[in-house]
Write a structure and sequence with these properties.
By secondary structure, the chain is an all-beta fold. 0% of the residues lie in helices and 46% in strands. Strands 2, 4, 5, 6, 9, 10 and 11 form a 7-stranded mixed beta sheet that branches. It has a 4-stranded antiparallel beta sheet with strand order 1-3-8-7, with no helix packed on it. It is globular. The protein starts with a strand and ends with a strand. The model has no long low-confidence stretch (mean pLDDT 93).
C-alpha cells in the first residue's frame, strides 16, 4: 500500500514558478514509477510528467516540456515537480500518482496505469 500527499500548490502570476512535492509512504518507494497529472475544470485528467527510479528516465507532456522538471529523492520518499514559466493554461488541480509500472501493456502516460493517487493540490496561474 502506498499513500501520497501533495503540497506546494498556490496562486502565481504568469511567468512565475512553483515547486510541487509529493511525499510517499510505504515500502520500496524507489521501485515505483511516479507521475504527475493535472485536471482543469470541465476537462479530463491529463498526463504532465513521470519518472522511473532513475532521474534519467523522465517523460514529459509536450505542453510542459522545457518548462517543468520532475525529480525524485528516493532517500526522502519524495517526488517533485518544478514548474517554471507558468501560463494561465497550467491552472488545474495537480495529482501525484504511483505504480509499479509492470507489464507489456503498461503506459507511463496513461491515467489508468496508476494504482495510487494523492488528493491533489490546486495550482492557479493568474494576474
Amino acid at each position: 500500500q502506498v499513500q501520497l500527499v501533495e503540497s506546494g500548490g498556490g496562486l502565481v502570476q504568469p511567468g512565475g514558478s512553483l515547486r510541487l512535492s509529493c511525499a510517499a509512504s510505504g515500502r520500496s518507494f524507489s521501485r515505483y514509477v511516479m507521475g504527475w497529472f493535472r485536471q482543469a475544470p470541465g476537462k479530463e485528467r491529463e498526463f504532465v510528467a513521470a519518472i522511473r527510479w532513475r532521474a534519467g528516465n523522465a517523460v514529459y507532456a509536450d505542453s510542459v516540456k522545457g518548462r517543468f522538471t520532475i525529480s525524485r529523492d528516493n532517500a526522502k520518499n519524495t517526488v517533485y515537480l518544478q514548474m517554471n514559466s507558468l501560463k494561465p493554461e497550467d491552472t488545474a488541480v495537480y495529482y501525484c500518482a504511483a505504480d509499479q509500472g509492470l507489464g507489456s501493456s503498461w503506459y507511463i502516460w496513461a491515467v489508468q496505469s496508476y494504482e495510487y493517487w494523492g488528493q491533489g493540490t490546486q495550482v492557479t496561474v493568474s494576474s
